[in-house]
Amino acid sequence: MLFDVAAEVTANTRLSPDYNVIALHAPEIARAAGPGQFVMVKPQAGLDPLLRRPFSIFERVMDAAGNPVGISLLNKRVGVGTRMLFAAKPGERVSVLGPLGKPFVPVDPPAEAWMVAGGVGLAPFATLDAALRTRGTPRRLFYGARSKSDLYYADIFERDGARLHLSTEDGTRGDHGRISEPLKRALDSAPKDARITIYACGPTPMMRAVAKLGEAAGHPVFVSLEPTMGCGMGGCYSCVIPVQKGSQRVFVRACLEGPVFESRAVAWDHLTGH
Length: 274
What we know:
Blueprint lengths: L2 E12 L4 E7 L1 H6 L5 E5 L10 E4 L2 E4 L5 E9 L3 H8 L5 E8 L11 E7 L6 H11 L3 E7 L8 H6 L3 E6 L6 E2 L3 H10 L6 E6 L2 H13 L4 E4 L15 E6 L2 E6 H4 L2 E3 L12
Parallel strand pairs: 8-9, 8-12, 9-10, 10-11, 12-13
Antiparallel strand pairs: 1-2, 1-7, 2-6, 3-4, 3-7, 5-6, 13-16, 14-15
């Protein structure tokens, strides 16, 4: 079910001069949301910004009794809309449409779930991690960023029982380099009969590298693609993605058939501009 609500800002946590987590009172969306789904957000009425912007649902916010009462968004201040979300104050209202898109499907034990995130590609994994945790599924988080100052919430995943593998391009925390390197080592050392499902979100080159490694090791890989979305409901065709269906390459709308895709279905060689 889809909801369009004027959600009250309940908290705005600044993580850095450019990143924040904004919590919104939206119990209808929180109750309906699955891991990896997204919402379309417009921070204020008027023409600036003109269009809503897609955000992965970061967390489902619970009340003291454990009931879902809202959602949070991991935001990076870049353009007009994201600057408004960065500056939003508790009590203000934000227009939120969702939940949208096809979610990740959590696996049950004895399978393992390995989540691979690049930068703000961490956003869809907090809800996935929560769903996996309730199933008792062993989890690992492979999390890469440019610097240690760009690694957010990693310790919370570890506190909740996920095994961490971190990397930074400048070597300030974890491995020095890209997150695909510790992922490759872990895959190489995993038992041959291990049942591993890999979930990835981040820059397209990273996801393509993760897909190649996972598929070569014989494990299913699911990627959350992040093309430009104008409406989030399939009307504007701004988010088309090339996929393989049989022997043919076709274009589908990521907001309807994604954003989660099995990696083998993605026509990576033709995925440009995203």
